[in-house]
Write a structure and sequence with these properties.
With 870 residues, the chain is mainly alpha-helical. The protein has 43 helices and four strands. 68% of the residues lie in helices and 2% in strands. It has a two-stranded antiparallel ribbon with strand order 1-2. Strands 3-4 form a two-stranded antiparallel sheet.
C-alpha cells in the first residue's frame, strides 16, 4: 500500500517499469565489457519484450514519449552491433517499425536511407536487413490508398541511395579477388539485400502490366471461340494450345500474373474435355507436362496464401471452403485436373499417383498440402455445399485413403501444421458420405480434441466440420444423438474457443457448431440450460458491442431457439428468467436489426409455456407493446410480430381477442391493403379465424375480413393476391366449415358465394395451376373438396367447371417452396447461389413451422375425388 492508503496505479507503475526494463536491456546489449552470451541473451529478451509491448493485443501501451526513447536507442544499438546481436536487434527494430511506421515513426526510412551512403559494410548490412524485413510485406499486400502512400514514402527516401549503393557494389566486381573473406561475405550480402528490396518495391508481384492483360484477354477470347465457334477456330487451335501451355510453364508465381494464368488455365480446362481436341492431349508426354508443370505448379501455396491463413483466416476459409476461390490459381489447377480426368482419367491418375508418391516420402507439409489438392481433385467429380462429394472416382479408395493418410494428420500434435490440419478436415467434410460411418462417428472426438488447439484457424475448421457432420443422415435417420456425442465436453470446448479468439463473432463457424451440438443435447446437459442461456445472452451483448457478423448473430438466436425447446422442460421455471431480460433490452434500446429475433424468441418461450402448461400471465403485459403501430410500421418486423400474435392466439384466444381484437383487426386492414404486405394480411386473417367469436368491439368480423379482401380484388388485384385469396377460402372451409364460409359471404351480398366460385375461383385455378406449391395444392384439394361436399347445391352450374379447374391444378407441376423442409435444409436455403446469406426478415428456422392443416388426411387428391362423388 502507498502511504496515502490508496492502491498503486498499476498502469502507471507498469509503464514506468517497462520503460526502465527496455532501456536497461539495450544498455546491456551495447556493453562491450559484458560476456557475449549475456549480451546475446539480453538482445533476445529485448526482442521478446518489444514483441509483447508492440503487439496488437497489448493491454497497456507505453506512452508515446517512452516508445520513442526505446525506438531511438534500439536503432542506435543495432548500428553499433555485429553478428548475431545485430541480427536480433535488426528484427527488434523491424517489430517496432511494423506497427509504428509510418504514422508514429515517419522518419525511420529516411534515417535508414542516409546510412546507406557510408562505407562501413557492417552498418550497411544492418540497415539493409531492417529495410528488407520492413519492405517485404509490399510484395503481397492488396492495393489501397494506404499502400500507395507508404510505397511513395519508401521510394522517395531509398531509390537514389539504393541505386548509388548498387553501382558502388558493382564496382567491386573487378577487385573481388583481392578482398578478404569477411568483406566478400558482406559484399555479397549487401547485393542480395538490395535485390530483395528492389523485388519488394517494384512491380514484379504487383499490378499486371498492359502486356499481361493483353495475354489474359487473348486466352479468354480464344476460350470463347473454342466453345462457340468451333469450326472457324479449329485450324488454329493446336498452335494456340501449344502457346498457352508454354506460357503457363514459363510464367512465374508472382501475383501480377494471376489473371493471365487463370485465363490460360480456363482455356486448357475448356478444351481438354471436348472430344474434337482429344488428339492434342493423347500423348503421355503432353499429359504429363500439363499435369505436373501446369496443374500441380499452380496448386502450390504461395507466401501470400500462408500469410492470409495466418493474418486473415476468415478470408482464407471463404476461398477454401465457401467457393469464393473462383479466379485463383489453385481453383484453376483443380478444375484443370478434373477436366483432364473426364477424358483421360486412367492416364492422369497414373501420372499424378507417381507425383503423389514422390511427394509423400519427404515429410514436407508444404508438399502434402499439394497432395490433398490432387487427391480431392481426382476423387471428387461433383460436389455440393449441402452434401459434399456427390460423384466420386472409382480409381481412388476414399475410405481407405482417409484411414491411411488423413486420420493421422488429424490426430498428430493438434498445435502443429495448422494448414495441414485444415486440409485434413476439409477432406473429411468433402467426402463425409463416402467415408465409413464408424469413422465419421469417431471423427467427432477427433474434432473435439482439435478445438483445444492453440491455433484459432484450426478451431474454425473443426467447428465447420462439426456443423456439417452432426446433421448427417443414413437412410433418412440421423447418425448422431446424445448416445454417441459428448455434448457437455463439446459445449465447453466451443465456448473456450470463443474466449480465446477476440474475433470469434466475425464469422459463423463456431456458433453454427454450437447450435448443432445443442441440437443433440441430452437431458443431463439440458438441466444446465440456464447457464448455457446466460452464456448465449453474453454472446449477444458482445455481438451488439462489436458489430458482429450478421450471420453469426442470426445463428446465435437460432441456437437460443433450439436450447429453449431442448432445455425448458429440464429447467425449473423454464428459461424465461434467463432470456426475457435480453428481449426487454433489445426492445427498450430499439435495436432494429435484433427486434425480429427478440419477437421470435419470445414466441418460442411462450410456446414452451403452453407445452409445459406453465403460467403465462407475465407475457400478457407485453401484448400491448407488440400491437403498437410503430412496431408494425417497419416491414422487417411484421413476419416476426405476426408469428408472435399467432402464438398468443394459441395461448389464450379469448383473452387476446377480448382485450385487443379491435387493434388486431386494424392491423389486418392495413396489411391486406398493402401490395407488399398483403400476404401477411392473409396470414393474420387465418390466425384469427378460430377466435372470431371472441372479437370484442368488432362489428361483423367476417364482413370486415372479406370486405377488405374484396376491395383489393376489385380495385388493385395482383396475381399473388388473387391466389392467396382463393387459398384463404380453402383454409376457412377447413378450419371452420364450408357452410360458415358460404354464410359469411352471403351476409355481405346475396349470391356472392356462388359468384366468387364461378367468376373468381374457376378462372383463378386455371391461371395459377402451374404456380402453386405442393402444400398449396393440398390445401386447395381439401378446402374445395369440403366445399363440394357440404355446399354442393349452392355451387349450381359452376360445380362441374370448378371441379375440372381444381383437378387440372392438382395434376399440374408444383413449384418448389421451403414448406416441409427440415430445419437444416431451410437454413441452407437462406444462402443464395453466390453463397451470400439472404434473410431479409430475420426468420429463425428453429422457431417453429406452420401447423399442417387437416393432418388426418394423407391423400388429398383422393379426398377431393371422394368429396366430388357426394
Amino acid at each position: 500500500m502507498l502511504p496515502s492508503g490508496k492502491p498503486p496505479n498499476n498502469s502507471f507503475w507498469g509503464s514506468k517499469c517497462n520503460k526502465v526494463l527496455g532501456v536497461m536491456l539495450i544498455e546491456l546489449v551495447v556493453n562491450n565489457e559484458a560476456p557475449a552470451e549475456i549480451r546475446i541473451a539480453a538482445a533476445v529478451a529485448l526482442k521478446n519484450f518489444v514483441k509483447r509491448l508492440w503487439s496488437d493485443h497489448v493491454e497497456q501501451e507505453l506512452p508515446e514519449t517512452e516508445q520513442k526513447t526505446i525506438r531511438t536507442a534500439a536503432l542506435q544499438a543495432m548500428l553499433a552491433s555485429q553478428g548475431n546481436i545485430r541480427s536480433q536487434l535488426s528484427h527488434t527494430v523491424y517489430l517496432m517499425a511494423k506497427k509504428d511506421f509510418p504514422e508514429r515513426w515517419p522518419d525511420l526510412v529516411s534515417s535508414l536511407a542516409v546510412l546507406l551512403t557510408q562505407d562501413d559494410f557492417d552498418k550497411i548490412v544492418a540497415t539493409l536487413s531492417t529495410l528488407d524485413q520492413l519492405f517485404e510485406k509490399y510484395r503481397h499486400e492488396s492495393k489501397s490508398t494506404e499502400l500507395w502512400t507508404e510505397l511513395k514514402i519508401c521510394l522517395i527516401a531509398t531509390q537514389e541511395p539504393l541505386t548509388t549503393l548498387f553501382i558502388k557494389m558493382a564496382a567491386f566486381i573487378p577487385q573481388r579477388e583481392q578482398m578478404n573473406v569477411k568483406d566478400v561475405g558482406s559484399w555479397l550480402e549487401i547485393l542480395l539485400f538490395i535485390s530483395h528490396i528492389y523485388h519488394s518495391i517494384t512491380s514484379a508481384a504487383g499490378e499486371p502490366t498492359a502486356l499481361d492483360k493483353i495475354k489474359s484477354e487473348i486466352c479468354t477470347t480464344v476460350t470463347l471461340y473454342a466453345q462457340r465457334y468451333e469450326e472457324e477456330i479449329r485450324p488454329y487451335m493446336e498452335p494456340f494450345t501449344q502457346a498457352i501451355w508454354n506460357l503457363l510453364v514459363q510464367t512465374g508465381v508472382e501475383t501480377r500474373y494471376d489473371g493471365m494464368v487463370c485465363a490460360a488455365l480456363d482455356f486448357l480446362s475448356a478444351i481438354s474435355e471436348r472430344p474434337q481436341y482429344e488428339s492434342m492431349f493423347q500423348s503421355e508426354e503432353v499429359l504429363k507436362t500439363i499435369a505436373i508443370d501446369v496443374a500441380v505448379k499452380n496448386l502450390r501455396l504461395r507466401e501470400e496464401d500462408i500469410e492470409m491463413f495466418e493474418d486473415e483466416p476468415l478470408e482464407y476459409m471463404k476461398k477454401d471452403i465457401e467457393g469464393t476461390d473462383t479466379g485463383t490459381r489453385r481453383r484453376g489447377g483443380i478444375d484443370l485436373v478434373r477436366s483432364l480426368c473426364k477424358r483421360f482419367e486412367p492416364q492422369i491418375a497414373a501420372i499424378l499417383s507417381q507425383e503423389i508418391a514422390s511427394k509423400s516420402g519427404n515429410n514436407n507439409w508444404y508438399e502434402k498440402d499439394v497432395i490433398y489438392c490432387l487427391v480431392t481433385a481426382m476423387a471428387s467429380k461433383g460436389e455440393t455445399h449441402k452434401s459434399g462429394a456427390t460423384n466420386t472416382s472409382t480409381l481412388i479408395d476414399i475410405p481407405q485413403y482417409y484411414r491411411s493418410n488423413v486420420h493421422s494428420d488429424l490426430v498428430t500434435d493438434i498445435n502443429s501444421n495448422a494448414i495441414l490440419k485444415a486440409d485434413a478436415i476439409k477432406f473429411l467434410v468433402t467426402f463425409r458420405n463416402q467415408i465409413a460411418p464408424e469413422d465419421i462417428v469417431a471423427s467427432i472426438n477427433v474434432l473435439l480434441a482439435l478445438l483445444g488447439s492453440t491455433k484459432t484457424q484450426v478451431h474454425k475448421y473443426a467447428a465447420w466440420a462439426l456443423e456439417r457432420l452432426l446433421i448427417m443422415r443414413i437412410n433418412g435417420q440421423p447418425i448422431f444423438s446424445s448416445a454417441n456425442v459428448q455434448v457437455a465436453p463439446l459445449l465447453t470446448a466451443l465456448v473456450s474457443c470463443f474466449d480465446s479468439d477476440p474475433k470469434a463473432e466475425m464469422s459463423p463457424y463456431l456458433i453454427k457448431a454450437l447450435m448443432r451440438v445443442v441440437g443433440v443435447m441430452d437431458a443431463s446437459t439440458a438441466s444446465a440450460g440456464g447457464q448455457i442461456a446466460a452464456r448465449l445472452v453474453t454472446m449477444v451483448e458482445t455481438a451488439i458491442k462489436n458489430q458482429a457478423n450478421p450471420v453469426h448473430t442470426h445463428f446465435l438466436f437460432e441456437t437460443m431457439c433450439i436450447l429453449i425447446k431442448k432445455a425448458s422442460s429440464h429447467v425449473a421455471g423454464g428459461l424465461d428468467s434467463s432470456l426475457l431480460p435480453l428481449v426487454e433490452t433489445i426492445l427498450a434500446q430499439n435495436l432494429e436489426d435484433l427486434i425480429p429475433y427478440a419477437l421470435q424468441i419470445t414466441g418460442v418461450l411462450l410456446l414452451t409455456c403452453i407445452t409445459r402448461d406453465a403460467p403465462k400471465d407475465a407475457y400478457f403485459g407485453f401484448l400491448g407493446f407488440l400491437l403498437r403501430p410503430e412496431l408494425w410500421a417497419r416491414s422487417s418486423n411484421v413476419p416476426a410480430a405476426l408469428y408472435l400474435i399467432e402464438i398468443y392466439l394459441k395461448a389464450a384466444p379469448e383473452r387476446v381477442m377480448n382485450e385487443h381484437g379491435t387493434t388486431i383487426f386494424a392491423q389486418y386492414t392495413r396489411l391486406i391493403a398493402s401490395k407488399n404486405l398483403d400476404k401477411y394480411g392473409f396470414q393474420l386473417a387465418f390466425a384469427v379465424l378460430p377466435s372470431m367469436e371472441f372479437a370484442n368491439g368488432v362489428t361483423e368480423p367476417y364482413a370486415v375480413l372479406f370486405n377488405n379482401m374484396l376491395k383489393r380484388l376489385q380495385g388493385s388485384r395482383t396475381p399473388s393476391f388473387a391466389k392467396n385469396f382463393l387459398i384463404f377460402l380453402a383454409k376457412f372451409a377447413i378450419i371452420l366449415n364450408a357452410p360458415t364460409l358460404a354464410r359469411a359471404l352471403e351476409s355481405i351480398q346475396s349470391g356472392l358465394f356462388s359468384m366468387i366460385m364461378q367468376r373468381v375461383a374457376g378462372p383463378g385455378f386455371e391461371e395459377f395451376k402451374n404456380l402453386t406449391t405442393t402444400e398449396e395444392k393440398r390445401t386447395i384439394a381439401i378446402g374445395y373438396g369440403t366445399i363440394f361436399r357440404d355446399c354442393s347445391q349452392m355451387l349450381g352450374e359452376s360445380r362441374i367447371p370448378l371441379a375440372q379447374s381444381v383437378l387440372q391444378l392438382l395434376e399440374a407441376p408444383a413449384v418448389t417452396a421451403n414448406f416441409g423442409l427440415t430445419i437444416e435444409d431451410e437454413q441452407v436455403s437462406m444462402y443464395n447461389a453466390e453463397g451470400e446469406f439472404v434473410n431479409p426478415f430475420s426468420k429463425l428456422a428453429s422457431a417453429g413451422k406452420e401447423d399442417v392443416l387437416a393432418p388426418n388426411i394423407s391423400d388429398h387428391k383422393g379426398f377431393f375425388t371422394e368429396c366430388m362423388r357426394v
